[in-house]
Specification:
The protein is mostly helical and 224 residues long. Helix content is 79%, strand content 3%. The protein has a two-stranded antiparallel sheet.
Length: 224
């Protein structure tokens, strides 16, 4: 059983990885035709629909795990995690990047792993306090764009915010932590490093928020 769990995770991850690579090549070589297909069925193929589908699969995986469909839960969660890559690829290739999508994507990323981490905290696999702090930091990070826009407009500030490598690292590690908790609960032979990984996720979240804020570059024209 221990070996089977680990093989399942590795196989599913590799399958999703190569599927994404194949999708990337297909999308890159068929951008125009893909856009037409997406626009014909926006409720399923639009990038925002893919993003929403990913979060629904993540929630579904926790229900499956709760009702002890453990192996199916692991597979569904890994697929949900890789859908986060797919939606961005489709959005950029088809020119369907929207303001709603820019807000929806990071929000769904956070929901995707936070709900799972909260569940694991409730059953004492993770430190409750540290998960709570992570939720607070992530909520602030999600609201930061609105906060900055308000401050720039009402206080004359000149600040912009942008995604950074710490945010991407946090998301990848958080998703990995969820799978790691699955394996640990299954007694799959992995060491209990859950809270150590959670600590790294929390530190990455803090750094992501700190380095998200930048001073806007002023554009000046040289008069000849």
């Amino acid at each position: 059983m221990e070996v089977m769990d680990i093989i399942l995770v590795v196989f599913t991850t590799l399958f999703c990885f190569f599927s994404i690579v194949l999708s990337y090549e297909t999308i890159k070589n068929n951008k125009d035709s893909l856009r037409k297909v997406v626009l014909k069925d926006t409720y399923i193929l639009h990038p925002n629909a893919i993003t929403t589908g990913g979060i629904l699969l993540a929630v579904c995986s926790m229900f499956l795990y709760y009702f002890q469909f453990t192996h199916l839960a692991i597979v569904v969660f890994i697929i949900a995690a890789f859908m986060d890559v797919l939606d961005g690829m489709v959005a950029r290739a088809t020119g369907l990047v929207t303001d709603v999508g820019k807000e929806l994507d990071p929000f769904c990323d956070k929901i995707r792993y936070l709900l799972s981490l909260i569940y694991f905290a409730q059953i004492d696999i993770l430190f409750n306090e540290l998960v709570l702090f992570l939720v607070v930091v992530d909520v602030f990070g999600q609201l930061s764009r609105w906060i900055v826009d308000f401050a720039n407009e009402h206080f004359g500030l000149n600040i912009s915010i942008a995604a950074n490598s710490f945010g991407k690292l946090k998301t990848v590690l958080a998703l990995f932590l969820v799978v790691y908790c699955f394996l640990f609960l299954q007694k799959s032979g992995v060491l209990n490093l859950t809270n150590e990984i959670l600590s790294v996720v929390f530190c990455s979240a803090i750094l992501s928020v700190i380095f998200k804020f930048n001073k806007k570059a002023s554009i000046s024209k040289k008069i000849v």
